[in-house]
Amino acid sequence: MRSPRSFRCVHCRVDVSITAPGTAHRNHCPACLWSRHVDEREAGDRSSDCLAAMEPIAITVRGDGEWVLIHRCRGCGELDSNRIAGDDNTLLLVRLAVRPLAQPPFPLDRLGLI
Description:
Layout: E1 6-8, E2 15-17, E3 35-36, E4 53-61, E5 67-73, E6 79-83, H1 90-102
Antiparallel strand pairs: 1-2, 3-4, 4-5, 5-6
């Protein structure tokens, strides 16, 4: 049974604790990295009416070296950034980070390297 200190992942249905190392406002699943569109204007405000699933689509790196997940809402299309947590699935984080290299938007032979 879930407590008010947890939520069920909208994607993989795992029960997730809202406390996590490295973040104060967890709203993504550490197992699959999916989220729910819960915040409207700022992290932790929980004021969104959308509540649709948010797919992890990319990783970005802040100036201080911190990795941040980029999510796209499956309901309204909004993009949102969400800092990673210390217990996030590292394999999935790396897969997102290398996706542009593994699946480039153009044929690699255009670069003349192959």
